[in-house]
């Protein structure tokens, strides 16, 4: 079955490239520019710095002061809390990458890494406020509610999965860490972080271009209703998909919860990007997919509830 699906997909791509070369080039260029102008400058510095900080041990010592907070609120170790913070402030798919890096570096257990995958991947703050609320919806007053709904949905998801991936911090085996004072070298850490970060960011660029081509194929499919096509585009890649939905000029009671839910899901493109971030570990993608499904549903319900409350108040 997988082989048949692969052959059909490859055939579709080949036919698209052969018979619609101008559209294919435009889609690939759009994906490349999105990667070059947005992801590369916004994510690469954080990737490099995050790698250096983890190798130096700075973060672990700093977050140890807030150990009680992470344990009681999120059921995480301090380093797990670091993975959550990176996922919130750096955007997709840094939550998955940081969870994989922490696990690979023996800073968190496998169970905690799987638990972290269920709720640590978030859209970047700039995407949520500047792009979604201001550029697409033209309503600045929705920025704070959007943050609240998205992060509350993520917290509900963590409550739902913490029993499934429960772990006892005190019973964890001793991690095979070297003391920073004995093993840490600024030069080696910088070189390793740069190489690892460039490899990861290049993978992301490849997936963005690939899914930009998929969106080009979807837009050419005949017989699809315009509304269904917009939903498929949003499910495939959230940046252009949410733009297509916003251009339909649906009522805010429909568009706001739907756009937030699609943003919370990340779409297929982010799922494949996250999978690539886990490639060098034995971490499965299933916790991420389960968490994103639940988070999207919570976001849709909370978004709809918020709009109904606004209607009553106004």
Give an overview of the whole structure.
With 314 residues, the protein is mainly α. The chain has one domain. Helix content is 77%, strand content 0%. Residues 175-182 have low confidence and may be disordered.
Features:
314 residues, mainly alpha
Q: Tell me the quaternary state.
A: single chain
Structural category is: mainly alpha
Helix content: over 70%
Order of helices and strands: HHHHHHHHHHHHHHHH
Domain count, please report it. Answer: 1
- What would you report as the Rg, rounded to the nearest angstrom? 20 Å
Largest sheet: none
Number of strands: 0
Low-confidence stretches: 175-182
Set out the fold topology.
Layout: H1 2-19, H2 21-56, H3 58-63, H4 67-74, H5 78-90, H6 94-104, H7 110-117, H8 125-136, H9 143-161, H10 180-183, H11 186-220, H12 226-236, H13 238-246, H14 252-265, H15 267-277, H16 286-313
Helix pairs in contact: 1-2, 2-6, 2-11, 5-6, 6-7, 8-9, 9-16, 11-12, 11-15, 12-13, 13-14, 14-16
Quick overview:
This protein has 314 residues and is mostly helical. It is built from 16 helices and no strands.
